[in-house]
Amino acid sequence: MKIKRPDFILEAEKKLKVIWDLLKKTDAVRFRLTVKLYREDRREPIVITMEGTRAEKGKWNVQAPLNKRTGPIESGSELQEKLKAIEASVRDYISRHSLDEEWRDWSSALNEVMSSGRSTDDLEYRSQIPVQAIAGHGYDAHFFAPVMAMAYVIEGTEALTRNDLEQASRSVERGMYWSRDEMLISDPRNRFVGRARTGGGGKAARYKEVKEKVAELLRELRPEGWDTSTQAVDVVADKLTREHPAFVEERGLQTGNLSRTIKGWLKKAPDKFPHLIKPKE
Question: Which of 84, 195, 204, 224 has its Cα between 20 and 30 A from that of 232?
Fold first, then answer.
């Protein structure tokens, strides 16, 4: 089953391709990109800002602009209470819509990603999660805003353990933004109903194309054979994450958790993912 991408996303990608071509020019040393999303039912637009500076070897260091505070930073206890409130808001949303079982997988994957050293800036400015959350695009779009909110809860809690009140304050601000009612899809269960009426086949149909690509890469990347199955899975997951993140994420999978997902597929149906293992010397 192929998921048709909305026309507005295809058009946005064309514009972003033009921007990316400009950023590849070697004389560019700094950039700032701001996107405003206007909705009919909202007076103030949603603003997404990204900026970066040229790093060594021509790469870009991309980061969120510094937050300019207009008032004093709150105490650690006040920030802690607000982080708890954000988490409670997310858990209430998940429970209210009976999403607990799937949320456990998302929560586990998020904790794994954050513990690996990734930051909220990586999620908000280097992944498609925020855009898809705002647009409500994708089968699992109702999980994207909760994921972002909880990422800031995790980062804010860690900042408080270091007594970094500035970082914790920013985490609270962004966590509150992503946990607002208007950022959460109001009736996610109707998304599943609508999908069923149009012939959707659930997770099996969504993951089919990714599984086929995994099987193809397992065969083609190392035709001479792999040292171990673990090596095979890690290399394939890394290639998909680096070169085809949109392909993976649009089908409801998480690039940060892809290696573990593929290992599960191989364990459950090894005959569907044949790959040659070199004999031990």
Answer: 204
**From CA 37, how far away is CA 46, in angstroms rounded?**
5
Contacts of 161 (CB under 8 A, 6+ apart): none
- 165, 66, 246, 256 alpha-carbon torsion, rounded to 10°: -30
* Tokens matching residue 24: 């590849």
Backbone angles phi, psi at 75, to 5 degrees: -75, 165
DSSP strand pairing (46-54 vs 60-63): antiparallel
Specify the 3-state DSSP secondary structure of 32. strand
Largest CA distance in the chain: 68
Q: Percentage of residues in the chain with pLDDT exceeding 90? A: 31
Reduce the DSSP state of residue 47 to 3 states and report it.
strand
- pLDDT tens digits, residue range 72-87? 678 889 999 999 999 9
Residue ranges of the domains in the chain?
Answer: 7-63, 76-191, 203-272
250-253 contacts at long range (C-beta below 8 A, 24 or more positions apart): 250/3, 250/5, 250/128, 250/138, 251/3, 251/139, 251/206, 251/207, 251/209, 251/210, 252/138, 252/139, 252/140, 252/203, 252/206, 252/207, 253/207, 253/210
Distance (Å, whole) CA 119 – CA 110:
11
Task: Provide the β-strand partners of residue 32.
Answer: 51
98 Rama sector, left if φ>0, alpha if ψ -120 to 50, beta otherwise: left
More confident residue, 42 or 22: 22
Distance CA 22, CA 175 (A): 32
Residue of 73 and 53 predicted with greater confidence? 53
**Rounded to two decimals, what is the model's pTM?**
0.53
